[in-house]
Structures are given as structure tokens and as C-alpha cells.
Protein 1
Amino acid sequence: MPHPALRLAVEIDGDGAHPAAWRRAAHTPGELLSPRRLARVAAVAENAGFTFVTLDDSLLPPGSGADPVGRVGAVERAAFIAASTGVLGIAPAVATTYAEPFHVSSQLASLDHVSAGRAAWLVTSEERAEAARAWGRPRVEGAEALAREARDALRVVRDLWDSWEDDAVIRSVATSRYLDRDRLHHIDFTGETYAVKGPAIVPRPPQGRPVVIARTGLVPPELIDIALVDGGTPTEAGEAAAGAGAPLAFAEVEVALDTPREPARERIADLERHGPWEPRPPRDGERLRYTGSAAGLVALLEELGRHVDGVRLHPLVLDEDLAVLSRLVLPELFARRIAARPLPGATLRTALGLPRPASRFAEEAAR
């Protein structure tokens, strides 16, 4: 039996995966945060046929190291992309550490409404002491505490999405009733560090729950839809995917492609003069990195398609590599039916082959 078609995602935060990618960007430094550039990158990704894009974020302001990064908040950028696209899924990174789950649930539910069901949540955590100071909160230290915060936050957010049943909004002019209060539910969550009563202030999202994405090990796999897995080879990525326990597993792949003017190795060498393209921290495992031609990447993704459900690509320099991906890589993948292009009018869950979950409160009432 053939493996289902590969789903494709791409990280579009900043100027690329290399810390010095901004030196080769096709725009002036002042345009990095402009709406025009963001809309242009999103349009290229949508027209190319990516299933969704991810937007990294940080609780902390830009640093002064080798890779200073200026950002507009990921959720705000995601909302702008939602308004300027019609098919592309949008997954902003939102940290569970220090953030209020009630606010996170409202932000992401609103994003799902304005995008007509194309929202996702890239779950992250924050362990730096500066983040705790920025929030005015006690520091969350250690892997166990970070995992607890992530787990509790995700459970609260999911329950808040479920706290409005699908038919809670009735809009009855005859009876002057907008809501059926019996279909709104208090979640009554009590964790080790906080409690949330609910219900949410935003009606249930079009997808029921926006797609939840997280790296393996951060939160229990039964709470997420897509696990991001590492692996230095397709086989290693496949082994990680098999053990992830989530409905879908996406391999993380860093890419540096040959362009019409320069081979990938020369482009990397040019950037290495300003700083190294370092591998991921050991705790996350070795990440697959491809350097070379578009045809070689097509072959690699075909091999990965036998082991994982999708890939998230991290281009070396967004302006250079995304052009090659859109012109030479994705068209070939679609022509050979290695990958699937999302269909207009479909929710992100539909594009990923994921079912729409029922509200757990409605399920409990039906028992």
C-alpha cells in the first residue's frame, strides 16, 4: 500500500535559518517587519503549495549577539497572513511558559475564526531567566517544571476551546437569545500553579480545535496533532516518528539549495564568514540538513515520505531558497504525487487528513 502523500510546511520567521541570513536578503533591513514583505512571503508559500507556514517567536526582545532578531508578535503576524491568504495554514509559535492559557486560547480561537479554519498552534517553552523577569513571574526551572507548565497550559487551552459546544450560539431573534447557556461549560481546572474556571470568551473555533504542533517530549503526545521529530537520516527520522505517538509526525529539515547564480556550498561559505550555521542543541537530537540541488532535495523528500507524514523546511536564506522551492522542488513533488497540495475552501485539519474533534463536554453529556 502506498504511503499517503507528504504534507509540506515551511518556517518563515526572520530571514532564514542561518544567523547571518539577513546579509543576503532581497530586501532592505528596514523592510523585515513590513506588512508588504510578510504578505509577499506568505503569497509565495501559498502559491507554491505549502500546507502551512510556521512563525517563530520569543518572549524576549532582540539581543546584541551574532544573530539579532527583530519581530512583530507571531500571533499578530499570523492574523495578517490570514487576511491576505485563502488556503495557507498558519501556525504561530506561542510559549506555554508564563503566558496565560486563557489569553492563548482566545488568541488562537480568534485566529481560527478570521482564517476560516486554517489556524494552528506551534507549542513552545521558555527556560531563560530573562523571560521570567520580563513577565514578572517566578522562574520555571528544569525540564520537569517546563513540561508540567506546557502540559497544563495545553490542557486548559483545549478545554477552553471545548467549553462552547458547536451549537451554543443560537441567535434567536424571536426569543432575544444569542446563546444557549446550557451549552457553555466551566472547565474548572486546578493545576499545581494556577486554576482556571472558564468558559472561554470566544465561540468554539471552526476546526473545533486548531491544529496543535509540538516537538516530541514537550507535552504528552495524546494532546497534540503533529509531532516535530529530528533525525540525521530519513531512517532515524522515521524511527523518531514511529515513537512519537501523535496522529502525525513531521520531520525537521534544514535546506540550502543551489540557485541559478551560486551553488549552495558557496552561499553557506559566504555566510560562515559572519558566523557558523550550528546544529541543533544535543537535547533535540541531530536535525536532518540538506545541501545541494533541487533534484537532490526532491529525492530526499521522496525517501522521507516513506517514513513520516510531512516535513517542516527551514530554508538557509528565505528569499533565496523559497524561490527555488516554489519553482523547482514543490512542482516536481506534486507532479510525481509525492506531496499533496491543500485544496481551496478546506480547513487545515481537512488538508492534513485530521478529523474535527467533538467538544469533550458535549461527548460527556451524551453518555
Protein 2
Amino acid sequence: MSRPDLPPLTTLLPFEATVRHASMTRAARELHVTHGAVSRQVQNLEKALGTSLFERGTRSLRPTPQARRLAAAVREALDLVEEAAREVSGRGGTGPLALSCEPTLLMRWLIPRLPDLAGRHPGLTVHLSAGGGPVAFARDTVDAAVRRDDFPVPEGVCRVPLFEERIGPVCHPELAAQLEAGAPVTLLHAGTRPGAWDDWQRLTGRTTRASGQQTFEHFYLALQAAVAGVGVAIGPYALVHDDLVRGQLTAPYGFVADGTDYGLLSPRPPERDPRTAALLGWLRGQAAELTPPTGPSVS
């Protein structure tokens, strides 16, 4: 059957990647071809359609509104073809789910809850890896990722919010009275989130007197130091929830929302993959339990 209005199919992958990245160089890197090959295919598509699809500057490449509309349609069509291919090959919604999660959240919140996931979804196998920042689903062998929204979500990536980030000072119970009395305490910092104390002070208007400062390379090290009584750290509620329940930490001032949240990222809508849909439902159930106190916590 003739399709006179259908553009050359070989042009669509390079075009969609170029729109998504707003860069032919990054599109070429993703597709493992040269910049020139991508450029030629985009030009062939523009010639076939009889219109320019990008506003080209000296060092910029901006898709036109028409290009964004076409790229969205191409992306949706590719998702449908990919889904059908998985079903035909027998790979649709089967096999282990590769999940990437931010390291501290993975260690202190997700892993301790895996027995519950196994009990509720015995047929779902999850392969975990630690990672942060944007996920290149087309390049990385990852099916889904849990990330804090501290970076722009790329076009074509689905993001479902899970829970908001709430932060507050946390310490060993023996240090709580000292902190509340305004006595100087050692402030614990993490190299991966160096502005945490400044953020909390800005949000609450409170100040804390420091007898010393200690910085750790990773967030989970700073929190473990707080558990050990080394000093006071800023603890996101999800990351310290279990320590508060066990009485290993206390939060004298409660927690305050910092304007960010965690979400599940996936290369296609979760409902299109039964594994991702099952994981999302379970994550939402776990996230519903994360309602922190706004005042002092009781350990």
C-alpha cells in the first residue's frame, strides 16, 4: 500500500534523537554513528517534508514547534513497535527488571524493604544498581530508575512522582538535649549534598552553633556518623526513617519540605511493562508510609 506522505523511515531515528538532545553530536553518540550521518538524515527529512525543522545558531540547535510535534509522534510510534517486538519475541514484561537507584536511598530505604516486595510480587526479580543523575535508557542497561528531581527530565522519559523530600537535623538521642539547648555541636556534611545545612536554615530560619565541622564523601557516611554520635547531620526523612523507628536517631526539630521529590523514571509509560507497573504500585505503597512529623520526633 502506497504511503506518499510518510517520510523516509531511515531519517526518523536520527531526527528524534536530535530533537530529544537538541544536539546532533549527542544524537550521533547515542546512535553510534558520525555527526555527518545524522546531519545528512536530518537534511533528507527536511527536504522530504519541504520545511526546516530546526533553528540553527552558531552554537545552538533549537527544534521548531513542528519538529517537536513530529518527534513526539515518532517516539510514540517507536514505543509501540518496541512493545510489539517484545511481545512477539517473548521478552515482553518477563525476565528481571534492572532498577537504578540513588546510592543512599538504595542502601538505607529500598534494600531493607525488598523482602516485602518479594512477598507481594514473588514472580518479580529486580536487579539493583546504584546511580545518580540523568539516565540514558537508550545506552544503559536499565529498565527504570529512582531519582530525586534535581535535574531536567529528558524528553521521552516518563517520570512518576513517589514522595517529596523533607529534611531536618538528626542526631543520636544523647545529643538532642545539647542541640535543643543551643549548645555548640559538630555539624556533619556530605560532599554529595554540600548545601544541605544552608538549605535547612534558609527554609526554617533557624541557626545552629557549630563546635566543629566534618565532611564525608557520601551522604550515607554522614548519616552513619550521626547514628554513631559523632555529630548532627541533615537527614532526609526517607533516609533516616528506619533509624528514627529504631531509636538510633532523633529529629529535634522535625522535618520540612525542601521543594524537591523522588520519582520513578522509565523509558516508556509504566503501564506498558507489567514489571514496571508492579514495581511502581509497590513503591507507591511504601512511599505512602513516609509522612514525617513536622515537629520534634519521639524516639
Protein 3
Amino acid sequence: MSRSSTAGRDGARRVAVVTGGSGGIGRACAERLGADGFAVVVHYAGNPGRAKEVAEAVLAAGGAASTAQADVADVAQVAELFEAAEREFGGVDVVVNTAGVMRLAPLVQADLAEGGAVDAMLRTNVRGALVVSAEALRRVRPGGALVNFSTSITRLSLPTYAAYAATKGAVEAMTPVLAKEAAGRDVTVNAVAPGPTATPLFLEGKDEETIARMASMNPVGRLGEPGDIAEVVAFLAGPGRWVNGQVLFANGGAA
């Protein structure tokens, strides 16, 4: 493990905020960063018990951890999330923004009512990404990284994913812009775009035939695992300093 992934320039422990840290990919990212020696703030929206489990796993892996609740689309709550990280651990070096909502339906059947399912995705996946990114760019220390999340569905173009893909397309569009806005601060901004990954969010409502078909879409012939995605995040959070403004598709070669 390289020192750049575990310690800041003064040798102190690096600190990561992982939004959606109680979920499948978020949990894997939190645990991997903990294993790399990070102090991790495990963010959750509504399940403190599950966030506590993740924090305990981070501690067991050799990291330090705390939990914090926030609505990622609420400016004041996100500011408090970062302030809590600074109070607890002294600063923030890496932000991994995995928080997201996915509601699937053909567009003509989608809940487009004000405040409905599509609005919920827009609020969390687009506004939330903007709010978290803004706070990250204000606070992340030099040598740090912001990692947002898109999806390989933006390339795979599968039916029922139109609204969800639209929200993640926004993340891809903002990524190189934010990287340029961070110029001069030694902070990288990238996005990770997982392919079909065996998380509760992905598996919910899918039958075995659908899961098997999606697993066969890449040359490796399986679904991704949360740990596969966490490896990419660990690279961007640590040694991958020359990767900036990019969307990294982590999908086993699906196209």
C-alpha cells in the first residue's frame, strides 16, 4: 500500500466522507478505505443501525469511523455533515458520493408527478451530487479527491432506465467541469460508472432470468461485486493522482 493512500502530507491519517455509506457499494467503499487506513465518516439517510454496522466493520479493518445523517440534497445538512467530519477527525481529504435513488419504469409509465419517483431521483442523484460536490470543493484538503457516481447504463441504454440514466448523465457532464473548477487546489474530481453490480438496490424486483441475462452482458460473465467498485474508488482516492475529470466505467467490459 502506498503512503499516499493512507496519510496526508503531514503524515496524519487521511479522512474520507462516504455518502450512502450504509448501502452496498457505499459500504464496500467505506470498508476498503478503512482497510487502507482512512478515518471514514459513514453517511446515511435513514438507517442509523446499518451505518453503525459499517462503522464497526471499518474499525475492525483498522480504520477509524463515525456515522452521520444528512439529506444530501439539503445544503445546510450537507454542510453540517462536513463540519462533523472536521470536528471528529480534523479535516476531509476524500469524498465518495455513492448516495443515489433508482426507480425503474418505461418512461410512459414513470411517475412524473411533482414530488413523484422521477423527482426523487432528480433530487438525490442530480441536486444531491451538486450539493455534495460544492461542499467538497470548498473543504477537501490539497492532495484530496472527489469521487461521484454515474452508471454504465448511460452506455448500455436498457429499457426502463431512461429517467435514472438521465440523472446519471448529469453527473458525467458535471465531472470534467468540476475538475477544471478545482484547478490550483490539487484536488481531483472523477466519477465511477459501475455496470450491473450485485447490490440490494440492483437486485430488488429482478427475477433470476433477468439477473442472469445482465450478468452475461460482459465478457467476464458475471455481475460485478461491490468490492470490484471499491477497488476503483481506492485507486482514485490514493495513487491515481494523474486521473482527473474522467468517468471510469467499471463493468467487466460491458458495452
